[in-house]
Specification:
CATH architecture of the largest domain in chain A: 3-Layer(aba) Sandwich
Distance between the termini of chain A: 43 Å
CATH topology of the largest domain in chain A: Aspartate Aminotransferase, domain 2
Largest sheet of chain A: 7 strands, mixed
Oligomer: homodimer
CATH class of the largest domain in chain A: Alpha Beta
Shape of chain A: globular
Strand order of the largest sheet of chain A: 2-10-9-8-5-3-4
Number of strands of chain A: 14
Order of helices and strands of chain A: EHHEHEHEHEEEHEEEHHHHEHEEEHH
Chain lengths: 390, 390
């Protein structure tokens, strides 16, 4: 490992760049996990997390591990062996949810869509008719592997009419576009810190609504994961009693709170608009240099732009050149999209006009070397025109 | 929460104080989890972790969550439903191991000892005779809840003669006293970062030996935790392929590597001697002011000193006064020891001569106010005499 570390502009699928105030909070000396000052920090954190989740759920706090542990926390707490979960699968993270639910001993019913497309609510409706006793319906709001943006309100209503619990993966959406937990009838939702919240990876914000809490209370079996058992964790994170469960990651919680303060200071709606604006600028610029988004038209995320790699261009060579020559990270495709797509994140601090212009000019400079002709300045000019309209 | 945060001297059961070099590493800007520079950091980390674990096990890396997740990782990977685990229970963490193993569907055989005493190897021998097909035998090396120090070499031999796997909790010992994974026939061992390694809490160093890896390969069922499934994580952390599993906690890994470098620079043996020396100084000083260690004689940890609260002294009031007036954190007792013991950690950076003298003089100043007569200066003088002999 180099000393000092290189400085990167993080435009991949996460982590995103972190504000200096968050880095400063991260590097503060430690206090104990039962210190009254840390408990005050926990209270501030849960309050601000409810704001970003747009919920009044008391059981809202960060799981002490990354986003995938937040996913696992939802399923291990809500599912018992033999119960049925209907899961939308249209990318890596839907596939992962199905795997996690199966490991809970659940019967998993997959509702599939091609990668890059969204799940059709009528397919969820059909699955609920065929499996009327399904306990959980889970979908991914923002598929980080494909850039697809799943509408949730209609599915939320269907799920509640059927009496099931609605679980949503908001890892790549929370803080970057609307995630309306209460309005959309979401019963359990998790996210990560390293995407649109722009804190380092290591925690997974999670919220459980009253119906999810009731299901938790009605369990017949112990939660299979001790570490993720919300019946114990809530006694530390939420209840006044503050019973020790595990040692909270102190520094990561400093960072998350500071990142949430930045979200609060910017204003959530303002932050959504910022992500929207830079997505449209990037998209216009990319189109001008012959690069098209790969996700379904009308369902393209503001936060994570999945694009087709131009014909004949070497995926790895371009990403390496961006990283080595310019310090810019973008992501490669996952699974069947490997070598076919790039994933360009504009999340949190990384969603900045300067980054849009930089990436476009970097691609304009590099792509001709890799066999993709580009008219110099076309991408940057198109992005600038788009920005002028918004 | 106060702004700025208070500065604390952390002499509780963890977290311990963190060196400024580690805080500086923590606050460095982020790079991606697949960045070649991060992969180089992973390689440096696994190398230094093998050194502190005194092992050549290839499968050695930090789990992306706190120590209790390291515990859970051992059991979910090694146990399948219906298998038998023999578990030493003589405090909170042995009790927790039994709970975690039961949640894996294992049949748990508890080998008990009173809290504060160590597990008798002959009790393990008897349990192994009664349960000859036991797959796992697990004990806690350093019981953070009682201050008891469990000898491991004899139990390790017994376990291997019986063909079982030896699992050890080294959360409060790794880096502060000898943990000889290969010599002691330990098959799986986990720790935390926030104790004697003096990094912040948030990661759990773990090592799996060849017999544990063979058991993992021979599983008939999937590991019940996706997040902790070593068959997948090793493809990211250990194997050349570096397949994405979850987003590694970048900043926490910066901090851990810097903390491991500090251990390496000090020298492991030297570090053990430092912990030994300060333990003996504290112990002599405490005895001089009428405070006795509570763990079994001859089995008292250097790293975590559990002491009897003097008769009539109010537990909470003294700890609050230490924290509020002097910024010193010590820990209270857990479970049946609540209100009866204090837990004084001298771990990692916190194991310093200055902290021994400070805590003794603080207790000399405070205890008379709470009804425990102390001859002024007696504790500090006794500690100084002890230090002069070592």
């Amino acid at each position: 490992m180099s000393n000092p570390l290189p400085v990167r502009i993080l435009l991949g699928p996460g982590p995103s760049n972190v504000h200096p105030r968050v880095l400063r909070a991260l590097g503060m000396p430690l206090i104990g996990h039962l210190d009254p000052e840390f408990i005050a920090l926990m209270q501030d954190t849960t309050k601000l997390l409810r704001e970003v989740f747009q919920t009044s759920n008391p059981l809202t706090f960060p799981i002490s591990a990354t986003g995938s542990a937040g996913m696992e926390a939802c399923f291990v707490n809500l599912l018992e062996p033999g119960e049925t979960a209907i899961i939308g699968v249209n990318g890596v993270f839907g596939t992962r949810m199905a795997d996690v639910a199966e490991r809970c001993g659940a019967r998993v019913v997959k509702v599939e869509a091609p990668w890059g497309r969204v799940i059709d609510p009528s397919d969820i409706r059909r699955a609920l008719r065929e499996h009327p006793r399904a306990k959980v319906v889970a979908v991914v709001h923002a598929e980080t592997s494909t850039g697809a943006w799943q509408p949730l309100d209609e599915i939320g209503q269907l799920v509640h009419e059927a009496g099931a619990l609605f679980v949503v993966d908001a890892v790549t959406s929370l803080g970057g576009c609307p995630v309306l937990v209460d309005t959309w009838h979401i019963d359990a939702c998790y996210s990560g810190t390293q995407k649109c919240l722009s804190a380092p990876p290591g925690l997974s914000p999670l919220t459980f609504g009253p119906r999810a809490v009731a299901a938790l209370r009605a369990r017949k079996t112990k939660v299979q994961s001790w570490y993720l058992d919300l019946t114990m964790i809530e006694r530390y994170w939420i209840n006044e009693e503050r019973v020790y469960h595990h040692t909270a990651p102190i520094s990561m919680n400093y960072a998350l709170l500071e990142a949430l303060r930045l979200v609060h200071e910017e204003g959530l709606e303002q932050r959504w608009r910022r992500h929207e604006r830079h997505h449209h600028a990037l998209r216009a610029g990319l189109a001008a240099i012959g690069i098209e988004l790969s996700a379904q038209e009308g369902h393209q995320l503001w936060t994570l732009n999945s694009v087709h790699i131009p014909e004949g261009v070497d995926d790895g060579a371009v990403r390496r050149a961006l990283l080595d020559e310019l310090g810019i990270e973008i992501g490669g495709g996952l699974g069947p999209l490997r070598g076919k797509t790039w994933r360009i994140g504009l999340m949190g601090e990384s969603s900045a006009e300067a980054n849009v212009l930089l990436l476009l000019s970097a691609l304009e400079r590099l792509l001709p070397r890799f066999g993709h002709a580009v008219s110099a300045g076309a991408g940057v000019a198109a992005a600038a025109r788009q920005l002028a309209t918004m």
